[in-house]
Amino acid sequence: MDRRGRRDGFVAVARWATRRGRAYHVSALRTAKRLPWLLAAAFVATNAQASDFNFYHDTFAFANATVFKYYKGIAFLRAPSGKTDPANSYTRRCFVMTRVAMQFHKFARFDPHGQPLDDRALAARVRAVTRPAPWREALPPKERIVFPGYANLREMSKARETVLKENIGAGWPTYFRPGNFRMFYQRSPKYQEQTHSRLDDVLAHGDFFIAYLTTYPRLSINHAVLIYARKNPDARSDIERYLVYDPNHPDSPRELTWLPREDSFAYQKDVDFVGGHIRVYQSYGKWLQ
After folding, report:
1. Would you state the torsion angle of the CA atoms of residues 289, 90, 121, 102, taken in this order, to the nearest 10 degrees?
2. What is the DSSP code string of 78-92?
3. How far apart are the C-alpha atoms of 261 and 278, rounded to whole Å?
4. Is the previous residue joined to 140 through a cis bond, with omega within 30 degrees of 0?
5. Tag placement on the chain: N or C end, fewer CB within 10 Å?
6. pLDDT in tens, 228-263
7. Where are the domains of the chain?
């Protein structure tokens, strides 16, 4: 091959390499643009595998009632229970019920083929489940406290409601939890952004996030819920949505949302809560929280 032929060959190779480089560059840009959604999808898949929490199996069949009744976000004392108003004798247990649901999922197992325990033995085992700190790692199946005669917590709490209610814990001590006092001084959007990051980290590790919800100094909500999963992201919106066990609503999951443009959480409207912006504080994630 003469010198001109070699030069033409080098030029052809250079042009081919340039075209390939551009193709790789465009491909990389396209991948980079899709990366947030790919990561989000991977996050959801990982979270789904890490936690086998089932709302219709792993929550209580009975409900917690609010101390106050609400109308358009304004709280007032409930009238005595009647036909048109749900029973309100079991109140102030939202923190208790979310914590114990988490503890049952981590430290208990069910044997539907066994003989159900009598009330005294069942009460003792329920109290035993509530003793370990809820932020501890889940126990392996062989080390868990066994509840024979029932397939899951939902089934057992429906059949043995009174025993469960009398032994999972009192509600009034939750008013004096040290973590509650953050609502007085941790009220900035930056703190909520940090809480959102912690929420995603907790769920990514397959754990649960108990959230204290408040609108202080307004009294439109003062409540605790258990966040157990993140919903699949919607490419048409930057709003992030989470599945929630709300002890006031045992019928179906509720929804908490994160609004990144406002650095704020929002909670689903219902008969008690007017809906809209709230502040979220993690509870039972560590000592004194």
Report:
1. -30
2. PPPPBTTB---SSBS
3. 15
4. no
5. N
6. 999 998 888 999 999 999 999 999 999 999 999 999
7. 1-50, 68-283
